[in-house]
Design goal:
With about 120 residues, the chain is mostly beta strands. The protein has one helix spanning about 105-110; strands spanning about 5-10, 15-20, 30-35, 40-45, 55-60, 60-65, 70-75, 90-95, 100. The protein has a single domain, classed as Rieske Iron-sulfur Protein (3-layer Sandwich), CATH 2.102.10. It contains 1 helix and 9 strands; from the N terminus they run E-E-E-E-E-E-E-E-E-H. The strands form 3 sheets. The protein has a 3-stranded antiparallel beta sheet. The chain has a 3-stranded antiparallel beta sheet with strand order 2-3-4, with no helix packed on it. Strands 5-6-7 form a 3-stranded antiparallel beta sheet, with no helix packed on it. Strand 6 and strand 7 (about 70-75) form a beta hairpin. It is globular. Bound molecules: FE2/S2 (inorganic) cluster (FES). FE2/S2 (inorganic) cluster binds near residues 46 and 68.
Length: about 120
């Protein structure tokens, strides 16, 4: 197995935005692009109550979770004080404008967490 998997071009990720990477098991991986074009990869799961970080607001080198506004550092996955917790991060490589993720980490990191459930309301709203 190749150690690295090509995911997308850097330019496929919106500036100050994200793109999700589907995996066979576990929650998706969120790729974030900052204003300075740095790219980061975190499990798309907030360490607080599992909110989708890919839907948050990217600012500086952090993302604000859309659920309760915790701030998560993109380079470490660590929640900023006074909050506590960490979401797993993924190694990545940028080569010729392409983003590559580590295959081993894609297969193993954070797969024990439940994937986010999204879709239409079960009850009439
Ligand atoms: S789930 Fe992210 S701040 Fe609560």
């Amino acid at each position: 197995m190749n150690e690295w998997k090509k995911i997308c071009a850097v330019t496929d990720i919106p500036v100050l935005g994200s793109r999700r990477v589907q995996r066979v098991k576990g929650p998706q991986v969120a790729l974030f692009r900052c204003a300075d074009d740095n790219i980061y990869a975190l499990l798309d799961r907030c360490p607080h109550k599992g909110g989708p970080l890919s839907q948050g607001i990217v600012f500086g080198n952090a993302v604000a979770c859309p659920m309760h506004n915790w701030t998560i550092a993109l380079d470490s996955g660590q929640a900023r004080e006074p909050d506590k917790g960490c979401t797993p991060k993924f190694s990545l490589r940028i080569e010729a404008g392409q983003v590559w993720l580590n295959q081993q980490e894609l297969a193993t990191t954070g797969i024990d967490f439940e994937p986010l459930k999204a879709g239409p309301c079960a009850k009439a709203c």
